[in-house]
Amino acid sequence: MPIFPLSLFCLVLALALYDFRTRRLPNAVTLLLLAAGLALHFPGSPALWLGTGLLFSAWHTGALGGGDAKLWLALLWLTPPAQAGAALAVMALALMGTAALQLGWRVIRRRRILGVRSPGAWRALLFALWLLFL
């Protein structure tokens, strides 16, 4: 197993735990990962740019927090361009699937369903896990 995907998974795990504790993601880490992804894969592919636009829109509408959006952008851009189409599908499935789980959990617990801000970096673990097996 290559060391970079394993290191990236461990970093995303650490960020998810940090997010649970502080409800924040450090810009120093997410922006550095994003810069690395852009440096490695710019100009990217149409799928990477589509994913970038979708993540920006999700952040702009409040569906995704700023730190989470930067983390997802970084992971998306760290994906090899040849895998960008699959990455976009995995990202969408991970985001929608974990959102459905969160909503279901709130219904079961009889909590407020919408308008709840909660740590979301754990959702990126599924994508980082997928990157391990590329």
Write structural notes for this entry:
With 134 residues, the protein is mainly α. The chain has one domain (3-132). Helix content is 72%, strand content 0%. It contains 6 helices and no strands. α1 (3-22) runs antiparallel to α6 (124-132). The longest helix is centred in the last third of the chain and has 25 residues, at 84-108.
Short description:
By secondary structure, the chain is an all-alpha fold. It has helices spanning 3-22, 27-41, 46-60, 66-78, 84-108, 124-132. The protein contains six helices and no strands.
Topology:
Layout: H1 3-22, H2 27-41, H3 46-60, H4 66-78, H5 84-108, H6 124-132
Helix pairs in contact: 1-6, 2-4, 3-4, 3-5, 5-6
CA radius of gyration is: 15 Å
Shape: globular
The profile of the biggest β sheet is: none
Cα distance spanning the termini = 10 Å
The number of helices is: 6
Q: What percentage of residues falls in helices of 4 or more residues?
A: over 70%
Mean pLDDT: 92
**How are helices and strands ordered from N to C?**
HHHHHH
Structural class: mainly alpha
Uncertain ranges: none
- Into how many domains do the coordinates divide? 1
Q: What fraction strand?
A: under 5%
Number of strands: 0
What descriptors fit this protein?
134 residues; mainly alpha; globular
